[in-house]
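In response to reviewer comment 3 from the previous cycle, which asked for concrete evidence that the modeling workflow produces usable outputs, we include below a single protein chain processed end to end. The sequence was submitted unchanged, and the resulting structure tokens are shown without manual editing.
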Amino acid sequence: MDNGSHRRNGNEASESAAPFDTRQFRNALGRFASGVTIVTTRYEGQTHGMTANAFVSVSLDPPLVLVSLDNRSFMHKVLPAVGHYGVSVLAEDQERLSNHFAGRTVEGIHIRFLTRHGVPLIEGAVAYFVVRVLDAHPAGDHTLYVGRVEHFESRDERPLLFYAGHYQHLKAEVQPALWPQDQFSLFSIGNVDPPVK
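The workflow returned the following structure tokens.
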């Protein structure tokens, strides 16, 4: 028997036997910087919203996006019945709104909504999406809601960012782009397989 392979297998076995540290896992995931959104909908005549940074672009054609919702959330309970939701990508001055909709109630906050296609959105955000739910996929303690974008709009303001458990802001200086904006997106990365040496 190859002693090297035996040692590797032993190491792998001991690593797999170690308890999974969910807190450290969450910290590691927090190293992926993201924007901050508020997901909103209308249910039984009331506006409901929740903060989420698990918002993902899925497809350009057709235009699909995804939000991942905790199975304990009220939004998860009502979204299948409602069928539509809005996503507001928050601006850098909207931290208080993010905190409020994350369950950290902010006293005296004044929330202003605007409506597109009957769906409430957060006024002052940098981008809006109105989405019709197409499918829901259970995924552990969350559910992934894939939807088709029926309306979107955006404006040139700096977004609110989230990294390592803290809000962050973009620097005022923006680096010049290497490619024209309409010729580059993260969608294009998987279209070619660059050589690896």
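Residues 3-17 form the longest helix (15 residues). We consider this sufficient to address the reviewer's concern, and the full set will be provided in the supplementary archive.
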